[in-house]
């Protein structure tokens, strides 16, 4: 294969990538149905489901009442009985209301029935802060990563939103697809050809030699911003976008970290028992001692207040500071 | 199903549980004796395509639905020949291929799942019905409300059956739930609902048949409350909180005695035939136990299979 | 409170929201115009010791409860002089010292909290009542069912007020909820319940007064549904889904026009006085905005205070 | 102070320690109330509340319906309005049903109201496996540790059950007190004098020099069993019982690990984003490279099946193997 034959792409918004994935899957497989609040004619809180209701009708695109436990529970039951539902939980904070059917039933159904029941369900939900306050800003993906039987994906680009959602809808067990409020209006190139992005594969978004920065979802954009600034400061930062949190592609990160000799993780959620610490420890197990640090939210609720929200969340400056401090302490004189 | 068949099914459940609980190492079990008429009456109204879901108290419903007693017994004892390969155990019996979608040990946890099964039938235009049996205790759970509402607005082919044995562990239903009749909970949603004597298998099956037929033909969901009894304590390792006097009254409401008396009175059964049915039921239970005893435990490696 | 006072309160809410939303950088806000009669009618029935809890749509109730408009405005704009030091913002306004226990932006999430406040009153034998205002959307949440049941069995001093504006974001109440009247949801639990015209502040306050008095004297909980309107779209950043024709009908049901017309008809108010009240309300809102504009943002260090 | 003057103690069961703490707190503070399923005349699923109903009556000891969201929500609301409720959630798995009021309200109330509201609530719940199957065996403490605004304690002895529950009931914010099914019937010495155990202090249960084993709850007993066996193998293992998970007493562990040069964590729950990995990374940050390993459940649901349950969970043998392997690889020839 010649590397200069690139697949044809088209530039679309993240929210359009989700709609496209849904549209194709619903066209291809009559078992795919969409349930959620305001996913019908309204087209989703972030317009990510625009047009589906008109094309596929109210039997397959269902506006639900505000009843997250039942929304997920019905999705799980329907999945167990032959459909492939996508359940939209507008904000990840409200996933808490539906964790019982997701964790106590869906994630365990295959195991507890000795393989008789599978639950090919996708829960699509939106994480992260964008001025909506303490109960609409949380990132709970680390909780989900710890649940055996669940897969978790977290795209940062339209192409991955499209490709990972397509892949999630092909899985035979439950997948949580988490996007982010700040991603919907971002645009990016997406292959014109239909396809999917395999779950479980991280991607190097930017090559670098001095430090590896592993992150996911919206923070990938912050990481790239930091990497660019670091470049101007003479620090070459490799940015890895996890894309899939469970399973985690630890090899890709470990190989990079072994090469750069330094690993920093970046997440918008809490550091304690978070995504970053899991990655750092697994990489250390593979590489032996290297320089490590983690960056995440302050240990506090995230206010809708613009000053306090910004104060609570990681930004490029904080990433840059963490990386410079790490490199200075581990390799005095380097940076 | 004839009344004699219903009686035979109830006797089989009773005998099965008696044999199970008399085994020294039976683990602890959630027994359904006293509520056989609910299990058998409900199952009698279902066809092969329908799916039955239950709370953790699921032995009666599983057997009534026709699951192999040996495999059920094996499952309850954690054996590899069990319906769930021994991995589900008490509270999670399942065999969807036989129309028993399964038990779920989270109180109220199977309500939304059952509605989802019904949704799948509806979307795929399969003329089948999902039925969920749950306890009076589960009626306090918000999941019931959410399920009733969705079942009503979407006209789901779902029949909710409350097996109201009037106790949740130690807590009397009267102390835990405000409604005069638990079936009243379906009223605001405009769903058909009724309360029947859950020790009368004929009442249960008759009411169920009407609701199932309605649901099957697109008429939507319904709620049936069955007033039953719990002859054992909450689980076979839980202390009984009801007094001997209370238990004596409880035991008078035996669904088996009731149907047997009715059939004897009507001349459809004689004492000899009844005795024969009892001993057949006992022998079937003993055979189930023998099958389960002989079965191996699963290999430890199964701890990691069928996870993802 | 006189009818004129009620009118003044409603005018203040209307003017406050108009001034807020006309500020260019107002963030996005959940406005309650169209439902002023619910907020004001409910607040009129409460004493200082009572506590009011609401959904995220809380500007009207907060002002009706007597919170300082400047501090409310400051809170909505994230300023340090806000009721919550600028940390709560839209959806979380609170000032328990003034009987406004607060808003909570999780739909249905304040129902169980309000019942807990009522439980505290009951256990501590304080003759106060907890009142929770929530939307029609919240009526689908299981939390309502669990709360109704506990409120009923424990006779909690709790009044649940459904501000039924007939929409949850884009979803019409009729598509989301099966009950004919949402107040019917309280019926199975044996709780007093009623549906009133939520654009008629006199109806709301009268019904509330009876329920609050009953709850205060140990009579237990009640459920009041108020049929109101939402004059703005769901939030000030959400696109409107109702047609212009629909909105025209909606706007005819203005609680302020209704009461004003009534008072004018009865001769209790003249056009001049009404105009004066309007401009007073507007000036109060402008003053509140001026206060909020002048207030500083909190220091970034506050991101870590009052956490544990 | 002379070290041979030990406080007088009495031997009681873990479940009795809980009842004693409740009894004293309810006697001292009329604001303490107990809500839960079967906590009244029945005395609790593990008899841990025996006698309270008779002493304090149905106003303060309330049997609830099976409605976990409302149980926690009412507890939170009552706490916010002046009571100090203890809410018993029989199994930690069902905490999921009440996470919304706990995490979205209680843990954020003080912050979001600018200090106006506090929620002095204790959620007492039972973790761990003891033959009850996939939906009654989970250990979810790592989720809770990651929530700003929540404290989490996990006693392993009757003395700590007593002392930490007393302390939890004195806190001004929400505390999750997690015990374990297998602990209730264990016995231990508890001081006769009333008092409490401060939250946030780990304790060295057994001194050792070769390796530090950090654990909590029931696994402390497994750790001590393993340490004893290791002792016979010539490996001196220091066992630290965390007691408090949030806040975490990382200094005590780090000091021990710095001294022994090796740190192993042991938990019954999932390793991914778990308690152990958080400890390991925080200690590594303080000590620099030392030998580390973590032991926990297999990444699978926990069956009620005796064979499969045992296979899924850590036991002394697995701990011993992990420690020996770690010491062999890090210090060849030592063990
Ligand atoms: C959500 C949840 N809370 C608590 C429990 C513990 N529990 C198991 S069975 C039971 C009682 C249920 O009563 P009911 O629904 O009437 O069923 P029954 O046992 O009488 O058949 C309880 C509280 C549980 N399994 N799930
Ligand atoms: C549990 C939960 N689910 C979803 C949302 C998103 N949401 C915010 S307001 C709203 C609509 C609520 O409708 P209603 O209860 O009628 O109140 P209204 O907005 O009409 O005042 C929704 C779905 C939320 N905040 N909480
Ligand atoms: Mg019962
Ligand atoms: Mg509404």
Describe this structure in words.
The complex is a heterotetramer, with 2 copies of chain A (335 residues) and 2 copies of chain B (308 residues). Chain A is of the alpha/beta class and 335 residues long. Chain A has 2 domains: 9-191, Rossmann fold (3-Layer(aba) Sandwich); 203-330, Rossmann fold, CATH 3.40.50. In chain A, 38% of the residues lie in helices and 20% in strands. Chain A is built from 11 helices and 14 strands. Chain A has a 7-stranded mixed β-sheet, sandwiched between helices. In chain A, strands 9-11-10-13-14 form a 5-stranded mixed β-sheet, sandwiched between helices. In chain A, helix 1 packs across helix 2 (52-60). The longest helix of chain A has 15 residues, at 14-28. Chain A is globular. The two termini of chain A are 39 Å apart. With 308 residues, chain B is an alpha/beta fold. Chain B has one domain: Thiamin diphosphate (ThDP)-binding fold, Pyr/PP domains (Rossmann fold), CATH 3.40.50. Helices cover 44% and strands 12% of the residues of chain B. Chain B is built from 11 helices and 8 strands. In chain B, the strands form 2 sheets. Chain B has a 6-stranded parallel β-sheet with strand order 2-1-3-4-8-7, sandwiched between helices. A two-stranded antiparallel sheet of chain B has the order 5-6. In chain B, strand 7, helix 8 (201-216) and strand 8 form a beta-alpha-beta unit. In chain B, helix 1 (3-22) packs across helix 11 (271-294). The mean pLDDT of chain B is 98. Chains in contact: A-B, A-C, A-D, B-C, B-D, C-D. Chain B binds chain C through residues 140-146, 148-149, 152-153, 175-180, 184-185, 187-191, and chain C through 140-146, 148-149, 152-153, 175-180, 184-185, 187-191. The structure holds thiamine diphosphate (TPP) (2 copies) and magnesium ion (2 copies). Residues 135-137, 165, 167-168 of chain B line the site of one magnesium ion (MG).
